Amino acid sequence: MKSITIKGSERENVGKKATKAVRDAGMVPCVIYGGNQPVHFIADERAFKGLVYTPNAHTVVVELNGGSYNVIMQDIQFHPVNDRILHIDFFQLSDDKEIVMEVPVKVTGTSPGVLLGGVLRLNQRRLKVKALPKDLPDFIEANISKLEMGNKLYVTQLESKDYKFMHVDNTVVCQVRISRAAMKAAQEAAKAEKGGAAKKKK
């Protein structure tokens, strides 16, 4: 999985007044869990643009004056009115410990059902996987080349090499639904066929 780097500074004062001053200065208060003790730090709000406002998934290298930390974003809080980032929680990674992370789904191939007028519906835009940090994929490939009209692609049909899906087996990743136009055309064809058969009987 691709990684991005965020540079910040460790915090000593984590009180409410200090936190307000940090936000007023355009900085985001953050904390890293998973190590021996939590690490509090701040970073420029603009530094999180490539992490938060993207459909992609990343691991993160947080560089502080006290060293660097390999982490993933665990939780984020936004302001209810202006959507500014209020706080971010990170979790520190260990090379020998599996973690659970949401990874985006990438649709590949061409569905015969879609070519016939069906509509592709992506039920799961992200899937939870469990793996060692080095085995986390950038995306999950959902090949729809075998989906006929009305077919569904289940999570059990997806390839998973070095990671495990954290979903029940009947989870539908995507499906090809019959469009209204295709349904109407099928009904008209059936009606015409029925009318032709009635004429033949006469």
UniProtKB/TrEMBL annotation:
Segments forming domain Large ribosomal subunit protein bL25 beta: 98-178
Keywords, in A-Z order: Ribonucleoprotein, Ribosomal protein, RNA-binding, rRNA-binding
Cellular component GO terms held in the UniProt record: ribosome
InterPro entries per UniProt: Rbsml_bL25/Gln-tRNA_synth_N, Ribosomal_bL25/Gln-tRNA_synth, Ribosomal_bL25_b-dom, Ribosomal_bL25_C, Ribosomal_bL25_long, Ribosomal_L25_dom, Ribosomal_uL5_bac-type
Domain Large ribosomal subunit protein bL25 L25 residues, every copy: 6-90
General function of this protein: This is one of the proteins that binds to the 5S RNA in the ribosome where it forms part of the central protuberance.
Quaternary structure and partners: Part of the 50S ribosomal subunit; part of the 5S rRNA/L5/L18/L25 subcomplex. Contacts the 5S rRNA. Binds to the 5S rRNA independently of L5 and L18.
Family statement drawn from the similarity comment of this UniProt entry: Belongs to the bacterial ribosomal protein bL25 family. CTC subfamily.
PANTHER family in alphabetical order: RIBOSOMAL PROTEIN L25/GLN-TRNA SYNTHETASE, ANTI-CODON-BINDING DOMAIN-CONTAINING PROTEIN, RIBOSOMAL PROTEIN L25_GLN-TRNA SYNTHETASE, ANTI-CODON-BINDING DOMAIN-CONTAINING PROTEIN
Protein's UniProt name: Large ribosomal subunit protein bL25
Lineage, uppermost ranks: Bacteria, Pseudomonadati, Bacteroidota, Flavobacteriia, Flavobacteriales
Gene assigned in the entry: rplY
